[in-house]
């Protein structure tokens, strides 16, 4: 197993540093571990390895409980021993985007990085075009991390990449902190959030017609999302790591992994077993 430590403490600078709770460190550990094993295992098998971060943030985060300033996902992915050959970083918030650009320029000036400012659902065509073209003499494998604050990532955004290229996904799915908390609101026919999240305007009928789910909205969403990914030729297997709050131990969200190849699933499981084993799907 990798010896790379994704818990990278740094000093604050003059740019914005978003505050996060301590449970985010578990997320950073998983993303860092997978990036490390991914590039180490694939570096001699593919000509180019591409890292895509659809919600890249500012590059730094401050842990509320300890006041530590640490690298967040995009800079963690740049800190691994075997770099990706290409990085594509997206961020909608202009202040965070500016901070990210400045920090990458200062800390990782030699890396090949494309920055895209905008809503990932709206600029996904730019992301796709930024990925190096695949050819016989230039094979390309990508890994995409998506860290939205809620269920605001449209499935068509994922489909745009997953249906066309060789790419693994690690997606934060806010099935407790958003879906469960807003269940009644999302049942309202006028609310389109879940329709966009699943890419299915008829999801209410599917949910109510299947007695297996009863009122288990979380399981329904997880199963439907996997079904969508399987339709894109991803491995039909739930690989979801649950993140819980540090104070009340309440379930918050899942980090869901998807790969088209068993080797990707193997890599994920090697990293996952080093995290807390009791925090499984549990839906």
Task: Give your account of this protein's structure.
- By secondary structure, this protein is of the alpha/beta class.
- It has a single domain (9-184, 234-272), classed as Rossmann fold, CATH 3.40.50.150.
- The protein is built from eleven helices and eleven strands.
- It has helices spanning 24-42, 73-79, 94-107, 120-130, 155-162, 175-180, 183-187, 193-198, 203-209, 217-230, 262-272; strands spanning 9-10, 19-20, 48-53, 60-63, 69-71, 86-91, 113-117, 140-146, 167-173, 240-244, 251-258.
- The strands form two sheets. The protein has a seven-stranded mixed beta sheet with strand order 7-6-3-8-9-11-10, with helices on both faces. A four-stranded mixed beta sheet has the order 1-5-4-2.
- Helix 4 packs parallel to helix 5.
- It is globular and about 55 Å long.
- The model is unreliable at 277-282 (pLDDT under 50).
Topology:
Elements: E1 9-10, E2 19-20, H1 24-42, E3 48-53, E4 60-63, E5 69-71, H2 73-79, E6 86-91, H3 94-107, E7 113-117, H4 120-130, E8 140-146, H5 155-162, E9 167-173, H6 175-180, H7 183-187, H8 193-198, H9 203-209, H10 217-230, E10 240-244, E11 251-258, H11 262-272
Parallel strand pairs: 2-4, 3-6, 3-8, 6-7, 8-9
Antiparallel strand pairs: 1-5, 4-5, 9-11, 10-11
Helix pairs in contact: 1-11, 4-5
